[in-house]
Amino acid sequence: MNVWRWLLGSSVLVWLLLSGNSQAMQRNSPDGAIALKQTDSLCPQPALSRVTRHRIQPGETLVSIAQRFDLIPETLMGMNPVLRSGSAPVGTEILIPPYNGIRVEVPTGRTWRDIATTYGVRADVLFEINGCQTAPRVVFVPGVNWSPNPIPASVAGQTSRVLRGYPLPSVVPVVVGHGWQVDPSSGEVVFHSGVRLAAAAGTPVLATGDGVIAFAANQGNYGNLIVINHNEGLQTRYAQLATIDVQIGQAVRAGDRIGTVGATGSAREPYLRFEVRSNSDLGWVAQDPGAYLQNLRVGR
Description:
By secondary structure, this protein is an alpha+beta fold. It is built from seven helices and 17 strands. Strand 16 and strand 17 form a beta hairpin.
């Protein structure tokens, strides 16, 4: 299906339903029931209805299962409490969501729109991903990582002076921005949790703030990945690296060299994938890096 036609149809449907005009759609049709049925077909199946089951086999690990299904371990841990110790008990049946994200119960007195605001996800995107349900009690929020260590939600999404550096020696174009968009390589509509920066292979990658290395290894589609935890519940991620020059637990300062640009993981050409995340009550929420570092805004 032409992706732009899908986007246009979905956007019109979302506007009509969110603005309360679904009745108008019925009145303007010779057969209101048929019109409503046709518009319903524009919505995808709810993400949680596409969850599959997998029985853990001998030799499988949390990481290998995540890689098999093109997910990150945190996604599986969030969906399956039995995995939160880091082990994968053989014979246990676990739930596999269609893509990365978290399952969230909508609290009494709140709506899915409140959930969209809390996690920084566009309301229309959350609406469609959950099958255009008007009052769901449970929703799947894409692009958010489950975390066992809660930090007050008031921290999330706020500009901070903790991140004061730039991830490369000089400012370069932002070739792919943050958020939902058409992936330039596949043509599919995807959520991009960071920004993609144009840089030659071997270019030094620099820490954007003081912090501690929380992860430094290969991680599936991220390729060689470095994760730095900072103060104020912030985290930065540097992916698709050629080399990793730091190790877990190491303290770094803003401007320190931590690796080099490469084309590992899902990358087909050299670039730096850079992410900023904030820790909420349920996971690491992907933030727009341009809200923290001016030179990471699209068009700069």
